[in-house]
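To whoever is covering the structure queue this week,

Two jobs came back overnight. Logging them here so there's a record in the thread.

Job A:
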Amino acid sequence: MLCRTVWHYFVVVAVALCLSLFTADQPAIAGVDPYITRYLRVTEPISLVLDNQGNTRSFSAQDLSQGKLLFEKNCLSCHVGGTTLPNPSVPLSLEALQDATPPRNNINSLLAFLRQPMVYNGSEESFLCQQISESWMPTPQVEAIAAFVLRAAEKAPGWGTETFQD
């Protein structure tokens, strides 16, 4: 009986060791979308530019996962892979966000755009992008969307390009 118990213990330890070896390179972070860790390369909090003065704010992998989920639910029908289907010449690439008027390359400016969408040159309101009012979605959720878009523009392979590849 003792021999059987030792054998079971040995098998359990061996299985646990093997599983830990096979999953060691994949961080197991609760509530984090695998896309965030794999393609956006976020496992620890990262700093993203908050405003035009260069101030930054920290966003966790969970924040970016929430932003991705909200983006998929509310923006994906027009912005597959960071493109803009209604206007393909204006993707969500970092370069395009920087070159917009006003620039949309930080959290606050992207938040302002999502609250009141303007055409790319800033001359008038855009009716192609849905306005996200405060009563519909609170600021922390809109900031999570902005953080996801900005990090994807920085790191995601093919984001905002026509080819969807590196």
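Job B:
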Amino acid sequence: MLAFVCLSCAVANAGESVKLTATLAPERLGHGTTVGFGFDIASSAKRVPPPLVGMVLRYPGNLGFALSGLGLATCEPATLETHGPKGCPANSRMGFGAASAQIAVEGSIVPEAADVAIVRGPTREGHLGLLFYVDGSEPVSAQIVLPGLLVPAAPPFGGAISLGVPLVPSWPEGPNVAIVSLRSTLGPEHLTYYEHVKGRTIAYNPEGILLPKVCPRGGFRFAGTFAFLDGSKATAGTAVPCPRRG
């Protein structure tokens, strides 16, 4: 997996900063890849940052999401909420990840870890839907669905993942859980799809998100906008460098 380069780590408000990361694995021009992305929210004041309520991740305009062969089936949000990713069709799965959060408890910061699964959701207003299933167990047991869409983005980007983040109370009338990091992938890595051919079920790996045959100048650029419950926003960018020739 190719390392990322952080281009900007933007200030969210008086004590918070956000860093965006991205990877392409493998990075072979003209071939399919798995796109990795993540963010980290840090507080220099040693306190829990305000809860994240939404984000928009813009990706390069020359990535072939439409030709990826991902998300051939759809999972309904109600099915995902009730049964988890196992209740969704195998061919709806699009990626995996992990998240961490923090809770303010009597002057202390309590960490929370969660697994993440990404499946294709219903199309909305002509845009492909994504559903991020976040499964946390300790200290707060919570399973939440983050609704997302693949939407257009202004040049030099080709599109964006627009993601809503619902508020999750730590306990009744307690403080909201604040997501402070996320690592996710979109692509064929660790995915198995199934196809029915002449009465047989054949397992295969999707091709993946197609990279162009020529790397854009400056590498593959990503940018994120993050919105917080207190009304503040942050922007951050990163780029995956062009692969070395030979």
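Note for Job B: The chain has a mean pLDDT of 88.

Please reply-all if you pick these up so we don't duplicate work.
Q.
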